[in-house]
Amino acid sequence: MEARKADIVFGFVLIASAGVLWWQSYRIALRFAGRFMPFYYTPGFVPLLLTSLLIVLGVVLIVLRRDAFKGSWVPRTRIRDVLLARGLWAVLLIGGYVMLLPRLHFLAATAAFLFLSTMVFHRRHVLAAALVTIVTTLSAYLVFARIFIISLP
Amino acid sequence: MQQVFGALTFFLQEFTHILSLPLLLASGLSVFAGIMVGALPGLTATLAVSLLVGITYSFDTTLALVILIGIYVGGVYGGSQTAILLNIPGTPASAASAIEGNLLARRGLAGQAIGVATLSSFVGTLFGALMLLVASPLLGRVALQFGSWEFFLLAVFGVMICGSLATGNPIKGWIGGFLGLTFAMIGMDAMQGFPRLTFGQFQLNGGISLIPAMIGLFAIPEIIDSLSMQVRPSVIRKVASVLPRWSDFKRHLPTTLRSGVIGTAIGIVPGAGEDIAAWVSYANAKRFSKQPELYGTGSEEGLVACEVANNSCIGGALVPLLTLAIPGGSVSAVILGALFIHNVRPGPLLFIEQPQYFYQIVAMLVISSCFMLVGGLAAARFLPRLLQVPVGLLMPVITVLCVIGAFAVSSRMFDVYLMFAFGLLGYFLKRFGYTPAPIVLGLILGPMADENLRRALFLSEGSLMPLLTRPISLILTLVILATVFGSLTQLVRRGRHGRHHRSAPEATP
Description:
- The complex is a heterodimer of chains A (153) and B (509).
- Chain A is mostly helical.
- Chain A is 72% helix and 0% strand.
- Chain A has 6 helices and no strands.
- Chain B contains 20 helices and 2 strands.
- In chain B, a hairpin with a 6-residue loop joins strand 1 and strand 2 (195-196).
- The longest helix of chain B is centred in the first third of the chain and has 49 residues, at 95-143.
- Chain B is globular and about 70 Å long.
- Chain B starts with a helix and ends with a helix.
- Mean pLDDT of chain B is 83; it is low at 504-509.
- Chains A and B meet through helix 1, helix 2, helix 4, helix 5 and helix 6 of A and helix 7, helix 8, helix 16, helix 17 and helix 18 of B.
């Protein structure tokens, strides 16, 4: 997507999310204001101020890019290109690793992640990938868990 | 005079404290690791320092700081080796060095270029450390007069100036800064103990943990980006003698001093990091040069200007960090987080409550620079081989380190999820033209802004008049307004210029 159009999309997302947080902050401020303390001393006051500023900045961003409303809004990138993008694979692999960690032991999850990543991004022989995986996983475990005595996931 | 003597005595005392074998070993290893990290394209000092904040969490405060400062100094310098050998700046700080450094290397002077760059970085770091030692106590004395209004304004100023300088578009920078401040509001309110913006998630009651957020925002986008574009660069393998010559140092002394002042001054300004210092210094050196025609053909003087400036920026960035708790750049923002985690409270009271840490940090800079000089010259021999490690192998290993770093602080999986969520946020924000530095700064300064604004308003019974009646508040308010108006004027001018350029081809028949 063109950068100026992307700014408009981001502006709307920002206004919507800041709006939700603004409402939450307003409710907190109302809960305390008057009865216990002045409005400006309530826990909701500063978040209310900040989310209001974010909404204003979101509007400014959209207004500055208003000329980008013209023209086609159909993305030029094809779905096939997105699916083949290495960035997407990186996100999926890191996300999968993070999700796998509480379900498997650290060693198993790390080994699986390293093996798959090496196969996807380095594209070498299975044996080479396995060797890299074993050496790295065991080194990480020994250095952090045994030498630095750091708790691992 | 007595105060200067007292400060010097304190410094020497802390310097000898650092001179113990374990700390020296830690310093040497971390500087060396920093050089490796800085040299590998895609890995920056910010990434390495954010990773290590988590890993060094359980360490003794001095040891943790020795490691973080060592990585910082080594990381800023290490990028220059890649810039010279590969023409790819290892870090943004060495982007300017790539111009002259690589051209020198292509002329067969790779060893000489590395020698000059290393010596310049060493002198630059020492210059920054000296400035830190001299300027911080003076600034700290002024900061002692700060009250709630001033602290609130200082937090706002930090976010606004960082937002203005960190990205090309101040609106985007400010959005980042205010996003960070809003994230800092999540969790239990420190004054009334009421949970805010947690959406019922009890894990968020403690707030957004700084380390997972920092690792996510700085490291994950870089990992994804590096894996997205896997290109194997061509390395210059032949490196002759790297030992710098005394005659070269004497010849470049005026440029060295000028660049040191520029680098330190730019480092002090929040948001303007090592990269800006290097570019400004390079342009300045060219303007004052007796041989400006050599710039762009492999000028040693140009390389000296960049390297002195980006390394002296380290000391400069630590001045506002230690005296006002406002970081000068992204690495110092991470170091600020580390200091808080280790119960060191930077700010005006640091010189009264915990002065030993200030002098220790200056001593660490001096020691790290010595290790950098030795390590940098030694690394030049085998670095060309290391630079050939494929990104596809390196980045997954870095990911594992990120996970360990995020988990190590509180030993809870929620922090790892938080790191990943902030990583995705950082990645998409980067795609949209935002940088993580203002977000992290907002996250750090959020509690300070929140508590001080509410306390100040409570004391003044809701009146905003103290903003005008208190002298320091008035100055800070005027500076903030000047920053906002200055940035907006620049933005409007650039917008008009852009529109003019876009409409120009249409007008041409």
